[in-house]
Amino acid sequence: MKLLSIDGGGIKGLYSAIVLDYIENYYDIKIIDHVDVISGTSIGGIIAIALAAGNSPRSIINFLLNYGPLIFPSKGIGGFARLTKSLFFSKYNSTILKKACIDFFSEDACLNDLFNKEYPDRRRSMKLSICIPSVNISTGKVKVFKTPHSDELFLDKGYKLWQVALATSAAPYYLPIAKISKENIDEKYIDGGLWGNNPSLVAFTEALTYSNKSESPIPDESMDLLSIGNIPENLGITRNILNRGLLLWNIKLVLLPLSCQAESIHNMIKLLFTKNQWNYIRIEHANSNIPGVKLDSSKRKNMDLIQQLALSDISNYVSANTAGDKKIRQFFNLEGK
Q1: Which residues have a Cβ under 8 Å from the Cβ of 258 and sit 6 or more positions away?
Q2: DSSP conformation class of 127
Q3: What digits encode the pLDDT tens for the residues 271-318?
Q4: By residue range, what is the domain housing residue 81?
Q5: pTM of the predicted structure, to 2 decimals
Q6: Domain count along the chain
């Protein structure tokens, strides 16, 4: 099975979209025609939904360039006023994000539409499955929004795409809790990155659960996983203050668990796939010391830097005859082409 996983990361999702766009152009393919399961978290979830809805990575790049500065405005209140506001309210509001998602996906399109969508050039025998992590804050439990790719998966099919996009990307501190209604019942969700910022394991678990014909925990067929990260932030603490309250921890209290979770999932998946001789590809920037690159850094110079780093990383990764090129050709069944 062919699995695609896309990390969360706010505006840094621009990195992921550029990597996907480069792969499509370099290998003259459409990624959506070659994968069985896509899982994405937060902005990765929005990208996953967009791909499944038939949007190209290039259109996703344009979406992020156009709406990113509006969703995460760089100008606003400063200093003490901003600090005071952050103690009681989210840093940004979600009005623009909601409008952007409705414009991009349409107001009425739902998860069931993704499952029923026809892809004329699709190379896979099974229908495309989508898995989007979130947290149901009403119940305090994890949630994975899924297309109805199995008979028992029917509860989510009526959710609108824009609702799922808001639910997976409502990052605490940055954006308000997402309140969405289904069958006249209000539900509240926050960012799936709190438990699945790297959703590789979500994609793998889904593939394992619904592809196996037997009761064995070992997959009936080989697995190939393309995991797209972005640019990690330096979340280390250098000041020698050990007794820290909420004010000193600040946003690192939210971001550090996300980063550690993504790294730990990468390590587990790498070990699992290596042991079984499956094809695992992880593409992300190696350096976490990039000034100005944060999940809400929407200034033009920062977005330009994200694009430059993404193009440099993916072009180096797929250079002719490199191990990366061979792994990607294997993933898309392009050996010998």
Answers
A1: 8, 193, 194, 197
A2: P
A3: 999 999 999 999 999 987 788 788 998 999 999 999 999 999 999 999
A4: 2-332
A5: 0.91
A6: 1
